[in-house]
Amino acid sequence: MVNTANAEGRVYRAERSHGKKNRRKFSSIMAMVLGAIVTIEIMIMGAMVLKLDFHSADRIALALGFMVLYSGVVIALADNNWFPHKLQPLPKHLNKGECMPRSFNQKLKILYLMKAFEEKTDREHPISVAEIIKYMDSYGISVERKAVYDDIETLRVFGMKIENRRGHPSGYFLADRKFELPELKILMDAVQSSRFLTQKQSRELLRKLESLTSASEARKLQYQTYTVPGVKSPNNEVYQNIQGIYDAIAENHQIGFLYYEWDFSKNLKQKRGGEKYRVSPWKLIWKNENYYLLGMDEKSEIVKHYRVDKIKHLNIEKAKRNGESIFQNFDMEKFSAGTFGMFGGKETPVRMEFENRFVGVVLDRFGQDVMLIPRDEKHFSMQTHISVSPKFFGWLASLGTGAVIISPENVRREYISFMKNTLMNYGEE
Q1: What is the helix (H) or strand (E) element at residue 151, kind and residue range?
Q2: DSSP code at position 26
Q3: Which of 27, 79, 103, 170 has the least C-beta neighbours within 10 A?
Q4: pLDDT tens digits for 389-405?
Q5: 185 against 297, higher pLDDT
Q6: In this structure, how many other beta carbons lie within 10 angstroms of the beta carbon of residue 382?
Q7: Structural element, H or E, at residue 251
Q8: Please, which residues have CB within 8 angstroms of residue 118's CB and are 6 or more apart in sequence?
Q9: Which among 391, 392, 393, 256 is positioned nearest to 314, based on CA atoms?
């Protein structure tokens, strides 16, 4: 882009210079004299042809006509530099200052060189000194081979790990970046799987992540990216929500917002009949590809969580936060493990028994700190605090006969009722 700007700038300046030479005709004084003579001759000839006589009012009109005609003749005859004239506007990219004088660009050469290494090079795509010189010339920068070597050494001293590849292809390349390709892939996968982001926000984030590597490596990442349609949030306020929550936590203030849920028309509708929620925010939790706000609900005075992508019209309140004593020693890991799919329920100590083949499943679900007690050669038991909900019962049912609730009795009965109601959907008693 800048290469084009410089080329067009040079052509434009050449055209202007050539045009000025063509427009230079007479000096200003000579043009005035000749203009008067030519104007009078034209007016006399016009009067003779039209057989006009010069009486009273006609003289005024004649004087005005003379002035207009005289000005036009002088402008036509004179060097245009004597009169203000309107030049053709510069191309838009030149107006933005992208086409700089060579002397100015010369000062920026080290930055352009850094740009070349970051955007164009990797281990498989080094850049030669000749290519660097050509690249610099595209920006209007004249550079000698020795200066290139000196500048590369300067970048090395600055901290850039630039290596020289002597094989084929040979040249210099940036060997160390802030993010390696597998790391970028992980970050991009996280963006793609994030349900709280809109499609547009995901695409913008992916482009920014791609800019952290070379153009060739970015193309590799593009080939591997795929976003499952229909899993993204339609709420474009997510960024503002996250920023507002962080600010409120940092400033120790409550927040207010409207909370939404899906209806059968696949539209988000307001909960509580449009009543404003007031919450003391304390934590943001990443769970099941979604962001959740954890805080104290000021109306019920209990700890609740809210999907960030279902929050709209968030604002920071003047009131200070409540719930400090609760969240001071709040066990986030325990809360996250016990809350299935972030569907709230009454937290209850639950004892369960599993077949040994589910050891990995249990540890993945509840963490490494949970105590496993062998029951016999084929079974083990464990106890933890669970937010009892249909989500928890559904997870337990997915393990089939290999998982059993031992206690408490009320949770056992709830689970039995859950299973019976599920069977009734299939006509089974």
Answers
A1: helix 145-158
A2: B
A3: 103
A4: 888 888 899 999 999 99
A5: 297
A6: 18
A7: helix 238-251
A8: 174, 177, 214
A9: 256
Q: Which of 82, 113, 133 is where one domain is finished?
A: 82
Q: What is the spatial distance between Cα 260 and Cα 278, in angstroms, rounded to a whole number?
A: 14
pLDDT digits (tens, 9 = 90+) for 33-86: 666 666 666 666 666 666 655 554 456 556 656 665 656 655 555 555 444 444
pLDDT grade for 344, boundaries at 50, 70 and 90: low
CA distance 325 to 304: 15
If one counts every other C-beta atom within 10 angstroms of the C-beta of residue 181, the result is: 16
The last residue of a domain, from among 29, 55, 82: 82
**Contact of 26 with 77, CB cutoff 8 Å:** yes
DSSP annotation of 86 reads P
The letter for the amino acid at 5 is: A
Helix (H) or strand (E) holding 386: strand 379-387
User: Do both 54 and 130 map to the same domain?
Assistant: no
Residue given tokens 């000579």 in the structure block: 30
Q: What is the pTM of this model?
A: 0.51
For residue 169, whether the previous peptide bond is cis, meaning omega lies within 30 degrees of 0, is yes
What type of residue is 105?
N
DSSP symbols for 80-97: GGGS--PPPPPPHHHHTT
Question: What CATH number did the domain enclosing 165 receive?
Answer: 1.10.10.10
- Structural tokens at position 43: 């007016």
Paired tokens of 96:
């933005």
Containing domain of residue 134, as a range?
Answer: 100-174
Residues 308, 294 contacting (CB under 8 angstroms): no
Cross-strand partners of 347: 387
- pLDDT at 2 > cutoff 50: no
Q: Give the β-pairing of 253-262 and 277-287.
A: antiparallel
